[in-house]
């Protein structure tokens, strides 16, 4: 199982290989590749290239959803939403030595995640987010404290987090903050990434 020290407290999420190449020079040490609506061959290509780039840069790469591609590429981490967790071959992932992070929103999902002994739990959205239409209301900081008391693995806060909000998210119980919209939609994404890296002390 991962520890809080395994995961950096700034956890950026990038939508593709191009964004990863843009983010790595900022000095990130942990990143999730969240590929959507890509053909299988393109998924495999981007996963393999992203893994090579991250390993060369000393950055931990987490593959979102595409667990088969992660196994085939020899990745170290995957992140699974609840629907993906239901479809994934967790035993195959474990045999491959891949660590698993899981998204949660309520008590039922938390119990489902904890049943596989995950390497981290993500809770969100903590704040309102513009990234996508969410069926879940903002969870709030108090719920982070509740989740923290329930888990023994690292806890990730996600959703609407900015550098101004991040200290409060950590103080409420999160070990790391996952961020995408704040820098992807920023007027100067590269500067914003550097700001996050400085905040994280990297």
List the helices and strands and how they pair.
Layout: E1 10-14, H1 17-23, E2 30-33, H2 40-57, E3 60-64, H3 67-73, E4 77-80, H4 82-87, H5 90-95, E5 99-104, H6 107-114, E6 120-123, H7 141-150, E7 155-158, H8 166-172, E8 176-179, H9 181-184, H10 189-200
Parallel strand pairs: 1-2, 1-8, 2-3, 3-4, 4-5, 5-6, 6-7, 7-8
Helix pairs in contact: 2-3
Strand residues, percent: 15-25%
Shape category: globular
Rounded mean pLDDT is 94
* Tally of helical runs: 10
Query: Biggest sheet: strands side by side, in what order?
Result: 1-2-3-4-5-6-7-8
Radius of gyration: 16 Å
Low-confidence stretches: none
N-C termini distance: 23 Å
- Sheet with most strands: 8 strands, parallel, barrel
Helix content: 40-55%
What is the ordering of alpha helices and beta strands?
Answer: EHEHEHEHHEHEHEHEHH
Number of strands: 8
Structural class: alpha/beta
What does this structure look like?
- Helices cover 42% and strands 18% of the residues.
- It has helices at 17-23, 40-57, 67-73, 82-87, 90-95, 107-114, 141-150, 166-172, 181-184, 189-200, and strands at 10-14, 30-33, 60-64, 77-80, 99-104, 120-123, 155-158, 176-179.
- The chain has an eight-stranded parallel barrel with strand order 1-2-3-4-5-6-7-8, surrounded by six helices.
- The longest helix is centred in the N-terminal third of the chain and has 18 residues, at 40-57.
- The two termini are 23 Å apart.
- The mean pLDDT is 94.
């Amino acid at each position: 199982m991962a520890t809080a020290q395994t995961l950096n407290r700034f956890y950026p999420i990038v939508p593709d290989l191009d964004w990863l190449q843009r983010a790595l020079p900022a000095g990130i040490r942990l990143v999730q590749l969240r590929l959507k609506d890509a053909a299988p061959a393109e998924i495999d290509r981007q996963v393999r290239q992203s893994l090579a780039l991250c390993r060369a840069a000393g950055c931990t790469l987490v593959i979102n959803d595409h667990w088969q591609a992660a196994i085939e590429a020899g990745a170290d981490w995957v992140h699974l939403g609840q629907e993906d967790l239901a479809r994934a071959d967790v035993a195959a992932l474990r045999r491959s030595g891949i660590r698993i992070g899981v998204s949660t929103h309520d008590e039922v999902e938390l119990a489902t995640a904890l049943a596989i002994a995950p390497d981290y739990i993500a809770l969100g959205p903590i704040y309102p987010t513009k990234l996508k239409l969410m069926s879940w209301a903002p969870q709030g900081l108090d719920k982070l404290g509740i989740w923290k008391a329930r888990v023994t693995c690292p806890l990730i806060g996600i959703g609407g987090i900015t550098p101004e909000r991040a200290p409060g998210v950590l103080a409420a119980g999160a070990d790391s903050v996952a961020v995408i919209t704040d820098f992807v939609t920023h007027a100067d994404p590269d500067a914003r990434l550097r700001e996050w890296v400085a905040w994280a002390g990297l």
